[in-house]
């Protein structure tokens, strides 16, 4: 088990990595799934042997309220059907924390429940917000869970210029689920999880 890293340099590095992902040319992405709520693309990750996923869709709400539903806090557990528990383990500042959360089994439990410990950081970006995270090797792994690992990931949320009451939400996710899993099952689950994330979030914001 590692000691907790210094939060300030980690937050800066994480933000810079996400901004770099955000500038990857469209030609490098391949469409993985498209629904009325969101489009998901993917490209080989430079962090591990899986994929970096990009998800994007327009959400009818203001930026702050959307990000409040995404970042660690009381809202997330209420609407995110994949997340089964969440605890804030450490808080550095108001916008910076370490959280432990668990996810439900997927694909008829081919993918068993997972546990993650993530450093999370929310900061301003252009006219909106960026909420990003990365997994840490920290804390004891609980029985009955495989410990997964999130390589740098995050959500950019910016108001649409002509419709400020609507926001463009763009996510970058690269999750190493670990354990003995066929890669095809992981890829199917990731694309579906990301499109479901948008439809669940939209329902929660309208509730």
Automatic annotation (TrEMBL):
Residues 10-207 form the START domain. It comes from the Eukaryota. One of its GO terms (cellular component) is cytosol. GO terms for biological process: cholesterol import; cholesterol transport involved in cholesterol storage; intracellular cholesterol transport. Pfam families: START. One of its GO terms (molecular function) is cholesterol transfer activity. SUPFAM superfamilies: Bet v1-like. Signal peptide: none annotated. PANTHER family: STAR-RELATED LIPID TRANSFER PROTEIN 4. This is STAR4 protein. It comes from Thinocorus orbignyianus. The lineage of its organism: Eukaryota, Metazoa, Chordata, Craniata, Vertebrata.
């Amino acid at each position: 088990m590692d000691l907790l890293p210094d939060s300030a340099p980690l937050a800066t590095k994480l933000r810079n990595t996400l901004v770099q992902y955000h500038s990857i040319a469209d030609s490098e992405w391949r469409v993985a799934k498209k629904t009325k709520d969101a489009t998901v693309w993917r490209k080989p990750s430079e962090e591990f042997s899986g994929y970096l996923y990009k998800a994007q869709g327009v959400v009818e709400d203001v930026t702050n309220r959307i990000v409040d539903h995404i970042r660690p806090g009381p809202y997330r557990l209420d609407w995110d059907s994949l997340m089964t528990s969440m605890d804030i383990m450490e808080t550095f500042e108001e916008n910076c924390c370490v959280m432990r959360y668990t996810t439900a089994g997927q694909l008829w439990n081919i993918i068993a429940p997972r546990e993650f410990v993530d450093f999370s950081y929310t900061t301003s970006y252009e006219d909106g917000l960026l909420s990003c995270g990365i997994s840490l090797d920290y804390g004891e792994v609980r029985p009955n869970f495989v410990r997964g690992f999130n390589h740098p990931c995050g959500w950019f949320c910016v108001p649409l210029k002509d419709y400020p009451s609507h926001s463009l939400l763009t996510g970058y996710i690269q999750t190493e689920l670990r354990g003995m899993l066929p890669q095809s099952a992981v890829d199917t689950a990731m694309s579906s999880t990301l499109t479901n994330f948008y439809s669940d979030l939209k329902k929660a914001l309208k509730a």
